[in-house]
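To: structure subgroup
Subject: Chain for Friday's discussion

All,

I'm putting the inputs and outputs inline so they're searchable in the archive.
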Amino acid sequence: MTSLLREWEDHLALARRRSPHTVRAYVASAARLLEAVSLPSWQTVAALDVAALRAQLARRRADGLGNNSAARELSALKAFIAFAREQTGSEAQPPRMRGPRVKKGIPRPLTPDEAVNLAAAMTEGGRAEWIGARDRAVLLLLYGAGLRIAEALSLTGADLPLGDVLTVTGKGGKQRAVPVLPLVRDAVADYAAKAPFPAEAKEPLFRGARGGALGQGAVQQAVARARSALGLPPSATPHALRHSFATHLLGAGADLRSLQELLGHASLGSTQIYTKVDAATLLDTYRHAHPRA
């Protein structure tokens, strides 16, 4: 069982170049399936059918799994069985089973003022000055350049000084070029000047209080404190700033293809959700402003 999981993990991380989070989730799903399989091997996994998938999902449902998690679990299991069939040379197609319906929620962006105020609030709270400058720089990279939080935290000292364009490595190891506003460049330069740690080429640019790589949890906690001080809703998260970046660009006239490139989406379908966000914003404005609404 251990060797099967190790091969599956290597395939996901090296061949498919999945994110660490996806690799962990898919390996965990495979491990749960193998625990329910008698004498686990590539042959036994490859022989699993729709009935076996239904039984596994039923067990997970009994543990309280919701629709979103069940859909992800099914996707992971189907991919695992497909990989097993590749390993055994089987030409059979993976089990065809439709997952639960998942309602895609519309991201809730911040207003431009809220986004800027949230970033500014990171410098307050009685913490060390360089830590406030660090958190402000990270948030401005999310809102000003549309980076994912993991992408911002993956920057190293070699990326300094930031120029007009920054090359970012996103999901699946895909690179893209994103423009960097002067405000963002200045914020990152300010942090680098105040940080007590040297910005070495191969070391993380953003450091924690003890000098290690800054984790996403620390940024999320800092944002939670700032939004509480500003009276913003719980939806005002670091990732909401990326949503705000996309929504505000679309509202200003950016086309979907350009937005897709800036966000690093693999498919246009992932970007099209922002058309719904913009429509929702317009409708909300109409309802609050139109005398007949």
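Points worth raising on Friday:
The mean pLDDT is 82.
The chain has two domains: 2-88, 112-289.

D.
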